[in-house]
Write a structure and sequence with these properties.
It is built from six helices and eleven strands. By secondary structure, the protein is α/β, with parallel strands linked by helices. Helix 1 links the parallel strand 1 and strand 2.
């Protein structure tokens, strides 16, 4: 049996994640964006400064601390994307980036990756478009959704943002999420979609798909969802 732990937004708080994971004893982690891949203060965005600054990820990146178990993550909208490219190349032992549009097999459980947040203005642009470079790498686009739509055997979608219509409401009572992600869920009907981004724990249902929204790691509610396979 393999115990997998899905974990909400970290914003660089890696030590706190492993502290909260101890009672669950997972074999591996899948973190659902806003990992907080900043290693230099000058490169941090405003939201990361608001959430406590650099965090302790830099200690892991520079080798002073080690990831004790395999840790997989998708991108959020608050990351240093150049650092993610280095992680993709194997810069940090036991830390693995899950590329958008790809499907990963864990003991027969198939997980589709969809990191980043939804931008209505940029969704239809190709990933090499100038308006999806630099900090705008934080968005997913039509190619990411189309890649996942080719698979009818995805068990879980690991997403940062949520599907529109899943019950997630904004500060002014508006419905949040991506209509294109809703269409994807309706087409391929995964058993579960796990997402973060909103720093709120919430359970909902979209057809046959269970939608799980996780709180941030230092939030007041549930930031962890465990699954035995």
């Amino acid at each position: 049996m393999l115990r997998m732990a899905f974990v909400g937004d970290l914003h660089g708080k890696i030590d706190l994640m492993f502290e909260k994971l101890q009672p669950h004893s997972p074999d591996l982690v899948i973190q659902i964006g806003d990992f907080g891949t900043y290693v230099e203060e000058r490169r941090m965005d405003k939201a990361t400064r608001k959430h406590g600054g650099l965090g302790d990820f830099v200690d892991y990146y520079e080798g002073r601390k080690k990831f004790p178990i395999p840790t997989y993550f998708i991108k959020g909208n608050h990351e240093d994307f150049d650092v993610i490219e280095e992680i993709r190349k194997g810069a940090v032992p036991n830390l693995y980036y899950m590329t958008n549009g790809n499907v990963y097999d864990f003991n027969g459980l198939r997980i589709g990756a969809l990191g980043g947040n939804h931008s209505p203005e940029r969704y239809k642009l190709d990933r090499n478009h100038p308006k999806l470079q630099q900090s705008r790498r934080k968005h997913f686009n039509h190619q990411d959704i189309e890649s996942l739509a080719q698979h009818q055997d995805i068990d879980i979608i690991a997403a940062h943002d949520c599907p529109l219509g899943s019950g997630m409401l904004g500060r002014h009572g508006n419905s949040c999420g991506s209509p294109e992600l809703t269409e994807l869920v309706q087409k391929i009907r995964p058993k579960t979609l796990v997402h973060g981004h909103y720093h709120r724990y919430q359970l909902s249902q979209m057809g046959s798909t269970k939608i799980i929204s996780l709180d941030k790691i230092d939030g007041r509610d549930c930031p962890i969802f465990c699954l035995d396979i």
